[in-house]
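G.,

No rush on this.
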Amino acid sequence: MSIADSLLAFTLAAALLTLTPGLDTALVLRTAAVEGRRQAWRAALGINVGCLLWGAAVAFGLGALLAASELAYTLLKYCGAAYLGWLGLNLLLRPRTAIAPTTGEGRATANWFVKGMLGNVLNPKVGIFYVSFLPQFIPPGQPLIAWTFGLVAIHVVLGLLWSLILIGATRSLGEVLRKAAVIRWLDRTTGVVFLLFAARLAVSRR
């Protein structure tokens, strides 16, 4: 497989994976609808920084260690499930009825960025996915570290573009999405989604 073929094949595969609805999509949509576009972008940036951190771990061999060590995988898996469960319970049991006020903007900025990042960093399946998926698209004889970062960068760009589309799609429904009843429903629905992902992660196998 030539370099051009490898890049094209990976881009198409990563695009399909990015478009598949999942936890990241739910988080970006919910944040855009309830918190606004700025907070949704911060969550999206956090999500993709988490991908970059996993890319670095895989590039420097930590991903392979995670794939080989059952204990390391299990510990990280349960930490990730606990974190997602905590987020889900908070959204389910304490849904909001209004958009967060503009005061305390700095605290909100860090909060949604960190939530997005931890959602990926504490999910060992992202690391296992990169370990098993990326090498298929690295041509023989090419530098492993450079190619790993390059492929992860493509995945991140696709993720940011998809987030842009999701956030833009909420603009036309802005008034409806900011009603108290809708905000409660979005929080509770997202909470249920997070709890389902937490349960799925907790009982998952490699």
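When you get to it, here's the other one too:
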Amino acid sequence: MLTELTLLQFRSHRRASMALDGRPVAIHGPNGAGKTNIIEAISLLSPGRGLRRAGAEELMRRDEAVGWKIRATLQNGQEIETSAQPSASRDVRIDGKSTPQLALGRVLRVVWLVPAMDRLWIEGAEGRRRFLDRLTLSFAPDHADAVMLYEKAMRERNRLLKDMVRDPSWYLALEDRMANAAIDIRANRALALTRLKAAQNGAQTAFPAADLTLIAQGPEDLRQALAEGRAADMRAGRSLTGPHRADLEARYAVKGQPAAQCSTGEQKALLISLILANARALRAETGDTPIVLLDEVAAHLDAKRRAALYDEICALKLQAFMTGTGAELFDTLGDRAQYWEVQETDGTSHIIEGAS
């Protein structure tokens, strides 16, 4: 849980500070005012490139060639700082000490939904893998290490394939690393699916449960499969088997209907159901809950379902950061939430507390 958040020279915000008390946070303002920039900053307090998958240079204020910085204080007193200077990679510090980005996953757990994910069930598998891996990371903080090791070895192997290197000795160590990391990736993903399923079963919720299936993770003996598949991989110029090819399938449990065939509103409700299940499972098992980022959360939700979502967020004691174009979208939250209005003047965003 965050108690303080400060943005410096981050996207449209020259300087923004928020004092937080643990309640859900409703952020409202017109399109383009800088609401999403705030929750993007929070997403960068976890491993990875954040909810927009932006590079460090893209996060700097428009037309200003200066670095950016994000500072946050957690409820337990820990301080997180992440920043980048022009032409430099992103720096991460925890309690003032420089640390690898992956260490963030052991300090803070963050999950999110953004409008681009509304089409998650009908577009390509890559987005669904990222969504699952973000949920998995909340249960298994070391999952990011396994994914990083696997992808690094795979990139090196793909380079050999594109260069038409045929000597097997060049591949053995890389394929060994990929196979070892794949074992952890498969196990972590399976753990996440098991816990999500358990958290959905028997839950009293207004959001439909999703039956989840993970397919095409690759054979158990990936080392052998990679060795046997080198010729085909060389023709393709990339590795054709392994957990990087996995896909997450979902069905609307009560209807028995594939998520891809559900209405837009049902697809959004299934995503929200999984986020709530994630929080429910973590709270039951560890007493901890993730920070939840919900960008334009009201989209495709009617007033009744919005109210139900807010009730569940409050019941789970989630620190959820939600954005919307108008304060009226959060009316049913009442004094259960903190409110911040975002305004934009001459390309600079300003935030005002308590404007509900």
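Residues 160 and 167 are 10 Å apart (CA to CA). The helical segments are 35-43, 125-139, 143-162, 169-200, 222-228, 230-236, 264-286, 303-315.

Enjoy the weekend,
O.
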